[in-house]
Fold Thioredoxin domain-containing protein.
Amino acid sequence: IMRLFTAVVFLSTLGLVEAADLTSEGSRDNGSKKRSKKQNPVVLNASNFETELNKREEKSRPVLVKFDNEKCPKCKKMQKTWKELFQRNSDKVYVVNVDCSSTEGKPLCEDLKLRSYPAVLAFSEFTKYHACEGADSKDLKQ
């Protein structure tokens, strides 16, 4: 159904990456390094997952995808940490979300055989490189 995506060890270098501009459309403001005040991670689902990843990877940036579930206590607890990581790292990496409890997101999460939430996957050059399932806030900050 969907082609696999390539390699980037991102989670281990998260602290070394700086932040950037990413609007929900994935565009930059005239190439400037100033951040928009209304940045939010892009929300993906089964119908737009591959298209959105391809769109971002064409710009030679790795994509960090967070999969969560609205019934997951750890996912709710990590929302603040996730937003901080997005703000701090969006310059070098595109950050996107998939809600696995939604009708749109559930088929994608099943295709990827995710077993626990939150799950974080890093993609680059059309290949999945790194995965972390059931992460805590402290795991993401390392």
